[in-house]
Here is the input.
Amino acid sequence: MDRDSWVNDPQRFLDVISANPVMEGGILYGLEVSPARNAREFEAAGLVAGDVITAVNGSPVSEISDYRDLLAEL
Here is the structure.
C-alpha cells in the first residue's frame, strides 16, 4: 500500500476500499470494509473483507466526520 497515494488522491482510496457503517445502539461503531475495484491493493494494505475499522491512530471512527480526516490519520 502506498499511503501517500491514498492521502494525495482520495479517489484511489475509494477505488480500493468500500466501507459500510456499522451501527451499535443507533451510534456509529465503525466501518466494515471490503475490496472495491482494486482488491490487490486492499489485500496489500493488510485488510480482509469484513474487517471493521473502529479507530484510526486512536481516534474513534465515530468522531471522524470527514473521510479526508480519516485519510490524514492514516
